[in-house]
Every structure is written in structure tokens, then in C-alpha cells.
Amino acid sequence: MPTVRYFIVHDALQDAWFIRYGQENFGPYKTHDEAKLFAVDAAEKLGETGESAEICLMGDDGHFHTEWLSGRDDRRAPA
After folding, report:
1. Is residue 46 part of a domain?
2. pLDDT higher at 1 or 71
3. SS3 labels along the chain
4. What's the domain range around 32?
5. Number of domains in the chain
6. Dihedral of the CA atoms 21, 27, 32, 33 (nearest 10)?
7. Contact present, 55 and 66 (Cβ < 8 Å)
8. Does a cis peptide bond (omega within 30 degrees of 0) precede residue 28?
């Protein structure tokens, strides 16, 4: 199971995307894809130290789901 989780969240008031890690938000980013690229880069850097990471995105149902797991190089934009 991943030990570190990054959450990609949308702030409708600012119409911007953020990466939430712990109690901090990083961004803003103009698009979901831009935020995901930065989150993947951060997760890969953690992977170099032996930690596993997971990137989560809130779905339409209001629940977070896994968008990326360490060890999978999937930087493609969602269809």
C-alpha cells in the first residue's frame, strides 16, 4: 500500500487546481493535467528514496479514486 498520498483538487472559486499533500496545498495550476504532472514528478522523487506514492482525484461521486500509483509511468491525459 502506498505510504504517501497526493490529492488533486479543484477550487471552483479560483477556477484552479491544487495538489494537497498533508495539510498544505501546492499550486495553483491551470488544468488537472498540469497538476497531475507536478504531482507525478514529486511522487517519482519520493520513489527514488524507496517510498511509494499514490495520486488521487475526486470523482463525480465526491469520493477520491487512485489516478496514479508509483511504479506506473502513466502521464497521459485522461480520455
Report:
1. yes
2. 71
3. CCCEEEEEEEECCCCEEEEEECCEEEEEECCHHHHHHHHHHHHHHHHCCCCCEEEEEECCCCCEEEEEECCCCCCCCCC
4. 4-69
5. 1
6. -100
7. yes
8. yes
